[in-house]
């Protein structure tokens, strides 16, 4: 077993020292599993197997869980799987906007791509991740959004950088966007929201109800 320790400040190192594991020093990035994976990909790439899994401190890997995971692994379809964050067996949220579900299972071939993934070829075709692993597996953007909408205020998204123009966005209900357009600090990056719907493809507007949601855009020249 190879353990990538991302600058832990608890008893992780002392516990690992008692086990027959190889410890690699990693880099912690803004509390985001996907970005930590991206930053430490050179370390993860040393692993022998194709699947990389982030575990929480109180989780236990079992044969039954391994079989459940194996059912969903599809190298030509699902590239990342999101799993609820649990702490002491309770759902855990860092703050209001932080997703309840975090991508924690990756195929090594796509592990350098951070964030949720959209297929964007003039229209939104699918989201090759699950909205709720072990509960509501979804490869459809509409289903993904509707399932997440029940439990969280914002949806994070990102294009595959090697497939199309980078495009990162998050959505929030209109009632949360009061006052004049402003710049907010989300996940240590500046995002700006606009009062008018962004010029998205009609297919995306119809899927997510863009007229009812403000869209936050990372500074990439989309807003004047």
From TrEMBL:
Alphabetic keyword roster: Transferase
MF term (GO), any: transferase activity
Keyword Transferase annotated: yes
Name of the protein in its database record: Putative glycosyltransferase
């Amino acid at each position: 077993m190879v353990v990538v320790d991302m600058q832990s400040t608890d008893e992780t190192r002392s516990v690992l020292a008692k086990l027959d594991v190889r410890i690699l020093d990693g880099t912690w990035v803004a509390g985001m599993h996907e970005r930590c994976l991206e930053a430490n990909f050179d370390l993860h790439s040393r692993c022998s197997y194709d699947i990389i899994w982030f575990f929480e401190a109180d989780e236990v890997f079992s044969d039954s869980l391994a079989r459940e995971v194996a059912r969903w692994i599809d190298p030509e379809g699902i590239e990342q799987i999101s799993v609820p964050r649990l702490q002491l067996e309770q759902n855990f949220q860092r703050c209001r906007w932080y997703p309840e579900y975090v991508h924690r299972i990756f195929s090594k071939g796509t592990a350098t791509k951070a964030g949720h993934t959209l297929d964007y070829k003039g229209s939104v075709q699918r989201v090759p991740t699950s909205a709720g692993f072990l509960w509501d597996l979804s490869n459809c953007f509409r289903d993904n959004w509707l399932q997440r909408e029940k439990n969280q205020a914002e949806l994070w998204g990102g294009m595959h950088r090697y497939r199309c123009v980078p495009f990162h966005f998050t959505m929030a209900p209109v009632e949360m966007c009061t006052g004049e357009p402003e710049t907010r600090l989300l996940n240590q990056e500046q995002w700006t929201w606009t009062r008018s719907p962004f010029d998205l493809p009609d297919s995306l507007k119809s899927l997510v109800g863009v007229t009812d949601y403000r869209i936050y855009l990372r500074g990439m020249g989309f807003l004047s």
